[in-house]
Design goal:
The chain contains eleven helices and 18 strands. The structure holds S-adenosylmethionine. The site of S-adenosylmethionine (SAM) has 19 residues, from helix 7 and strand 12. Belongs to the class I-like SAM-binding methyltransferase superfamily. RsmB/NOP family.
């Protein structure tokens, strides 16, 4: 079920659209169309922890679960398969349904972040619930709406009349009283989803089996296939790519992971532990300052040219994350990322040994943070050269950027609103690879 409601998913639409390449919002008749932002990619992708599980075994587990669910739902199950090139990636298609209807007496209102997650196959966790009909008891069925204009107060106890969108139906697991009484902070699943608007299924696997990861992010990990030695992951939390690179390196190397935020660094540790990844060292550190001429101890800052490969997956405007029912990013916030990304690139190039590989990736779609960042880096640092993204999946860089035709072919853009395969219908993402000249 595709969403093309009358929803403009940007609070500061007029300013933000100036930064969005036309291909993402212009429909064939030239009118504005935001459906790419509103809809989730058609496939879920699960990156298998191949140290512990066989990919085919997990395919069988997911297939069995979906088959059982299909019998109760009286529908054909989604397809489950291993990606033909990215062999640690399981692809799951969606349920086919014709949309949702208000079916039940009771309503639940959730915030936009929660709604975006639900549309990607998540249950509804308590912190995302803003309002629930007061008579809804555990086990009752509810209609779930997204508060798309962010007008619903947490704990609101009347019928919500603001702009909302029916995104799922499900079963109550935590009552209104438990959620909101005495400003309670309740965790866990508040509503178990049975149908969501996107048809993206829930996938239930053990914690150590791997993780749901966007397809281009999984591809990004594969850039490190031929690396031996030390890899620096400069902006690493929560560690999704760190743990993937570590698993790809195996006993051929180690990942040093940095992040500037304490709580997020802790997440890297927890993920390594849960996946059983041991070749990662992680530090709370500002990656713009992680290289120093006089570094002389274990841990950051490090000596120049001490890493065989570097991943720079910096903070970005994240406009490629979809679905996004409403994005409050302000124009000044949007513009702020380029400065930090350039600073981080400077450190990345210092960190890299001669002949080493630098991978730059973002989950955004602006030219400034992608193609133009690459051409800035090529001009600024004559010691690096662009290298093709291998395996070459996705689309070339966009036209009308400062990259030459040849350079456009070397970088990868994911998620242009064109094709419908798992390689094409993804979040918006960008990967560029550089070599440091010998
Ligand atoms: C796009 S996220 C990284 C996602 C991560 N690579 C993954 O795949 O799990 C960007 C991260 O950069 C971190 N960050 C922001 N500024 C930083 C800095 N100066 N040094 C290191 N990390 C920074 C943020 O805390 C955030 O966790």
């Amino acid at each position: 079920m595709a969403l093309s409601e009358n929803v403009v998913p940007f609070k500061y639409k007029d300013e933000i659209v100036n930064h969005i390449p036309k291909v993402f919002i212009e429909s064939e008749d030239g009118s504005e169309d935001y459906s790419w932002f509103l809809n989730a990619p058609s496939f879920s992708t699960f990156r298998v922890n191949v140290e512990k599980y066989k990919v085919q075994d997990l395919v069988n587990v997911i297939e069995k679960q979906l088959l059982e669910e299909a019998e109760t739902k009286n529908k054909c199950p989604p397809k489950v398969f291993i990606h033909k090139i990215i062999n640690d990636c399981i692809v799951v298609s969606r349920w086919n349904h014709n949309g949702l209807e208000k079916l039940w007496e009771y309503d639940v209102i959730v915030d936009v972040a929660c709604a975006n997650a639900v549309l990607r196959g998540a249950d509804i966790f308590a912190p995302g619930i803003l309002s629930m009909s007061s008579n809804a008891m555990i086990g009752d069925k509810v209609n779930v709406y997204a508060d798309i204009e962010k007008n619903c107060r947490r704990g609101y106890n009347k019928k919500f009349t603001g702009k909302s969108l029916l995104i799922s139906t499900g079963k109550v697991k935590i009552t209104r009283d438990q959620l909101f009484k005495n400003n309670a902070t309740v965790r866990g699943v508040g509503v178990e989803v049975d149908w969501n608007l996107s048809g993206i299924p829930k996938i239930k696997l053990p914690d150590d089996a791997g993780l749901l990861q966007n397809f281009p992010s999984i591809v990004c990990g594969h850039m490190f296939k031929n690396i031996t030695g030390n890899v620096l992951d400069m902006c690493a939390a929560p560690g999704n790519k760190t743990t993937h690179i570590a698993s790809i390196l195996g006993d051929k190397g180690e990942v040093t992971a940095l992040d500037k935020t304490k709580e997020r660094v802790a997440k890297i540790g927890r993920l390594c532990e849960s996946l059983g990844v041991t070749n990662v060292k992680y530090y709370l550190y500002d990656a713009t300052k992680c290289i120093s001429e006089n570094a002389n101890h274990i841990g950051p800052p490090f000596m120049t040219e001490s890493f065989q490969a570097v991943l720079l997956d910096p903070p970005c405007s994240a406009l490629g994350q979809r679905p996004s029912l409403m994005n409050n990013i302000s124009p000044s916030q949007l513009k702020s990322y380029v400065f930090l990304q350039r600073q981080l690139l400077r450190s990345a190039i210092k960190a890299l040994s001669k002949g080493g590989l630098l991978v730059y990736s973002t989950c955004t779609i602006t030219l400034e943070e992608n193609e133009e960042m690459v051409s800035w880096a090529l001009k600024q640092f004559p010691e690096i050269s662009l290298k093709s993204v291998e395996p070459s999946l996705g689309y070339p860089g966009l036209q009308n950027s400062s990259l030459s035709e040849k350079e456009r072919e070397l970088v990868s853009r994911f998620g242009l609103p064109r094709g419908s395969s798992v390689d094409e219908d993804t979040i918006g993402f960008f990967i560029a690879c550089f070599n440091k000249n010998i």
